[in-house]
């Protein structure tokens, strides 16, 4: 496996956080934008804490409101220039997956309020469910990371990382117990 800097890894977290993670961090390759794309200002990671522990089970994020999501009504910055951002998934053993215009930065009210952490988690959960359904019908090149019809219920969203201008990649834990 290449160096850890090119993958989202458990080593990215302190020992204290690692102990609270709800499973194994899926070693997704970090998305790299195509050559020639202009430099971008990397935005802060967006962390998800639910019931006092790192990560939120994606199945729990499908229902709004999300009780006990820390900072649920906070409004993290997703872009300094656009109104929507892409979501990129680099699941081991599968072709890279992306969804353009995946997350609206503002809600659809007249006030155009910034998206809340709760709404972002909900949208990612919705997209990830579709990703799991699609990929569970395909054979993974890495059998230990094969997605099955029941995999979604065991996945946790830990963070979102800004990987290029207008693109974010989720850090996912898989409870393989």
TrEMBL record:
Protein name: Uncharacterized protein
Source species, domain of life: Eukaryota
Lineage: Eukaryota, Fungi, Dikarya, Basidiomycota, Agaricomycotina
